[in-house]
Specification:
- The chain is 46% helix and 10% strand.
- By secondary structure, it is an alpha/beta fold.
- Strands 1, 2, 3, 4, 5, 6 and 7 form a seven-stranded mixed beta sheet that branches.
- Strand 4 and strand 5 form a beta hairpin.
- Helix 3 crosses helix 11 and helix 4 runs antiparallel to helix 5.
- The relative contact order is 0.16.
- About 4% of the residues have low confidence.
- Its EC number is 3.1.3.62, 3.1.3.80.
- Keywords: Cell membrane, Disulfide bond, Glycoprotein, Hydrolase, Membrane, Signal.
């Protein structure tokens, strides 16, 4: 709160002067799914264990760390990077509204050729993110880092960025201990941490569905986005007429390059105002809401298998046969589906591309940043002379609404999570999914009632 008030005061003081990116005291730091983990994380070491309790098992789900852009994004941002000389020339002839130092920084900027050789690969920054998470867990739960290696289990999806993230996490977790921990090989088909990959219902009707395209189209047609487009065109003063795709590619090159620097700055971000960045951030919120979030019942169901795994691991630990640490490394898609299955970050009204709600709960900068995670801790406790268990939950190393910091009781955990033990992926077959769609189910039931009524009427007619 103090930081926010200070930033507001600085903004008010600076509003009368020309705004420059290079020396902004409180620049906007939220860049949706490309937000660095350190921007939004807490520190799990700062949260006390429940009184009279000791951790006996940790289960965690992680998005991979900071990565290079994908092949399609790399192609797009390399194309828009060719505007560099035109932007500099526009400033030189007085046609630009850019600041001198921001132009100087742009002149120094160079394209990184390794992006085309290691597309979507984990970066050094991403390795450090996962290593540091593992390190903080080691320092918080030292009592768990004893025993045989079969008390630990780690697995990732079959992508370089998730495999390397798992290795980084295990490095930080086991460093300085006697444990020689390894990450299991990715499964050929992993319906626990990557169930959507082979789910036809999801791939055809959600990820490739018309609803997602319509909402994104509505976003790009909003007055807010059109204002961003006009602002950037005027600010740069270039003859090239920027398309909506160009604007978003400029945003991509801005947010990727800034995420790799110690100062978290990129000269490409200077083409936007803070308000421009707020509007551009919303595009990913819309996209992920319909692709991975509450925009489809399919997404909520796909979050079930991994929560079943959580429940079964903690149940085994309570029965004396569980593991000390179980961790998985996957993608933002899986984390968002898991949060939806838990009912987290759900707004009263659906997210819509045509209208941005500034007070929305669904913000991908917080729920889909690099290295975003869900950490569950099972504690064994002594309460009133009896052994009990309490479960704590953390998202990005911060407390959550799932349980208080003192933890849920074992009964409360069972009552909420037992429902996931019956989860399955039968709905993924397009032919069978009709029985799982609430809207279709209701319509089908109504149609069946009509058929039954008609059959009864015919029966009595024939009796006459």
């Amino acid at each position: 709160m103090i930081r926010r008030l200070l930033c507001l005061a600085v903004v008010a003081w600076a509003s009368a002067e020309k705004s420059c990116y290079w020396n902004a005291l409180c620049p906007y730091r939220m860049y949706s799914t490309i937000t660095p983990y350190d921007t939004i994380r807490g520190d799990i070491r700062d949260y006390p264990n429940p009184e009279g309790c000791q951790a006996i098992s940790v289960w965690s789900l992680h998005r991979h760390g900071n990565r290079n852009p994908s092949s399609s994004v790399t192609t797009d941002i390399k194309a828009v990077a060719d505007l560099k000389d035109e932007i500099i020339q526009s400033f030189g002839r007085g046609g630009s509204q850019m600041c001198s130092q921001d132009i100087e920084e742009l002149k120094k900027w160079k394209w990184n050729d390794t992006l085309e050789e290691s597309q979507a690969f984990l970066t050094g920054t991403g390795y450090e993110e996962l290593y540091d998470i593992g390190k903080r867990l080691r320092e918080k739960y030292r009592e768990l880092l004893r025993g045989s290696v079969d008390k630990y289990y780690f697995r990732s999806t079959n992508e370089q960025r998730t495999i390397a993230s798992g290795m980084a996490f295990v490095h930080g977790l086991a460093e300085g201990t006697d444990l020689n921990l390894t990450v299991d090989r990715p499964w050929e088909r992993d319906d626990i941490i990557n169930p959507y990959e082979h789910c036809d219902k999801y791939q055809v009707e959600v990820n490739g569905g018309q609803k997602l395209l319509d909402e994104l189209d509505a976003y790009f047609r909003t007055d807010e986005f059109q204002m961003v487009k006009n602002n950037v065109q005027e600010r740069l003063g270039i003859e090239t007429q920027l398309s909506p795709k160009d604007i978003y590619s400029l945003y991509e090159i801005c947010r990727f390059y800034r995420s790799w620097t110690p100062t978290k700055q990129s000269p490409w971000c200077s083409v936007f105002s803070d308000q421009d960045l707020v509007v551009l951030e919303y595009r990913d919120d819309v996209r992920h809401y319909y692709r991975n979030g509450y925009g489809s019942w399919v997404n909520l169901n796909l979050g079930g298998p991994v929560l079943k795994d959580l429940y079964e691991n903690f149940e085994a630990a309570v029965n004396g046969s569980g593991r000390n640490v179980v961790s998985y490394f996957t993608h933002d898609t899986m984390l968002e589906m898991t949060f939806c299955a838990l009912g987290l970050f759900k707004d009263d009204a659906p997210i819509r591309g045509a209208e941005r709600n500034p007070d929305r709960l669904w913000k991908t900068s917080f729920i889909s940043s690099f290295s975003v995670n869900l950490i569950a801790v099972l504690n064994s406790c002594q309460e009133s002379g009896s052994q009990t268990y309490r479960v704590q939950f953390f998202i990005n190393e911060r407390e959550t609404e799932l349980c208080p910091t003192t933890g849920c009781t074992w009964r409360q955990f069972q009552d909420y999570f037992h429902k996931f033990t019956t989860t399955n992926l039968d709905f993924c077959s397009i032919d069978n999914s009709i029985v799982n769609d609430p809207e279709t189910k209701a319509a089908t039931l109504a149609e069946m009632v009509k058929i039954c009524v008609t059959a009864i009427e015919i029966f009595f007619y024939l009796l006459k």
